[in-house]
What does this fold into?
Amino acid sequence: MGRWIMLDRKLYYVIAKILGEDFVTGYTEKFSTRIIVQKMLYLLTHGVRSPRVSLPYSWSFYLRGPYSPEIAHALYYVNEVFDEIPKEQVQLSTEETAAVSHLSQTLKLIEDQRKKRGISNSENVFEAAATLVYFGERKQFDKELLIQKLKAFKPNIYKLLRTDFLSELVTVLNENGYC
Amino acid sequence: MKTLTGLKAGKKIVDPVHGEIPVTEVELAVISSPIFQRLRSVTHLSLASLVFPGATHNRFQHSLGTLQVMDRLLFTLKSQDIGEITDEVIQVMRLAALLHDCGHLPFSHSLEKRGSGIDHETLGSIIIEKSSIAERLSKHGIAPTSISSLIQQQPVADDPFFSTLTKLLPLIHSNADADRMDYLLRDGYFTGVPFGRIDFDRICNSIRIENDQVCFLDKAQDALEGFLFSRYQMYKIVYNHKTVICYDLILNKLLDFIEEYSDKVSLPFRIPKMDEFLAVKPDWFDSDFLSLNEGTFFESARALIKSTELKEPKRSICENFYKTIITRTPVKNAFLFTNLAEVEKGKKKNSEFCEKEKGIFAELSSIPGIIDHWSFLRYDPSKPINLETPIEAEIADEQDYTHIKLLKKSGDERYAIVYLQSMPNSVVKSLARHHRVLISYYHNNAGAREKINEIASKVLSLENASDTTRAMQ
It folds into this structure.
């Protein structure tokens, strides 16, 4: 049946809160923006022990990692009407507020590591993080196995991010309850 | 005896759409399970047969057809000799196609998400992992989760064929997947409408894997656009036929009654909740679950009407709904508004229409005997406006797998992957910019119909109502 386009203020709110409003309005403009938004939302709504935000979108897994076609639809056509969306405060539950704050802090830790190691491209980091969380979701945590799986599935990203950074990334994700 | 892709087949099943469909040993084991045989009693188009008498086909036939289309697509990919399309991968993909609809409840999409609140893909995954299907798959060395996860569009990372199965996901879920190809051909065939015909061979022969992505040779552009347009036509003419929608609505109203009284009256039709599905023992799916069918639905309606628990005026209302379906008595259409709005404008109009519709109901409720009459039906009580996309607008995103991609020659030996709707000569991209707005009200009283038409036309500001509405007096 036909897809309903919903003006989901909660979705836009959490993206704007964590990444900035430009990531909502600029979703269609750059591939890197689309990757970062999708992967950030995956981290926000998944994770083994981390607090989560509840969003009514289904997720799938394809070549670039976790992806929600429904979120893509909700964001792809928002530009034209973004100004008309009421901007009053969206009510998040206590856990959801904690999830937003927890993810922001975790992303800051990852970002610090990325800069420290001179990795220029942050969308690859988001892609790797969401993919690692997907791989680790239904299993006992095993750092080496996760990195090996990423290497087998995404050899290019593995090469670009290098083992030392990936090792640190998995540690941060694990310590913060995402895998 | 072999499948087209070369797997050893144990039997052939004859199908009116595809001819002979060879099935492998594991597929035969799955098909023979009671839970799969249940699909014979799940009508593919619910009550559409009350409008299109030929449309009595079922999910069992469609599942076999999808299996055959999948095999046809895999055959072309295998013949490219890329090495990844092994017998094991083919078997998993064929099983995913065969089982993609095993979670459908009676009347297919009509009652989907009612009661249980879960969609057929989620329920299908539970069935594959918990019912006797799991045992039958395991016995043949197939992990049930390999199949269920594909249906849920989340390939299992531990699967030995994880990378290939991920690449092949668009064959199961996309705008040109095996499911859509079969249901268009099948629904067109069984309804008898001259739509739903597609250039199946050209589409199947053109499929390729390039740069890990499923795409089609650009010479199939016309066939693919014809396929999308065919789907658009089928939605317009069959799936959203005003009388089909009317019976669908009555069916849901009957279920409202059955659900309301299920605690007071012993009724055989009851849709379990999600947690109940998760808690049941495996043999429940092959026994009690089978009584959840279209026959017991009407049996429950009959039992409820006879029950002393159901008092007037509710009893008469329930009986009217029941008789309307059983005797195929249509409720007259009072107002029908269909409009193709451009995506952006349509999106703004979505909330605008909702507000306006509230105005229609406010005015109608002040007139006695209209909205409280049993025959007053609106399109969908929970979604007053049906804003659908006949052809989804392209999302040009490398992360996406749902949109059709073409392989276009860009140099002597070079090929580029482009989205179908990005082709300068694409004819469907203009249709993808539109949403179809469908508002429909029904009433059996001529005076009420006149009032509904008058007020709805006024509130929706239809200057020339005859252009956009059809009142069936």
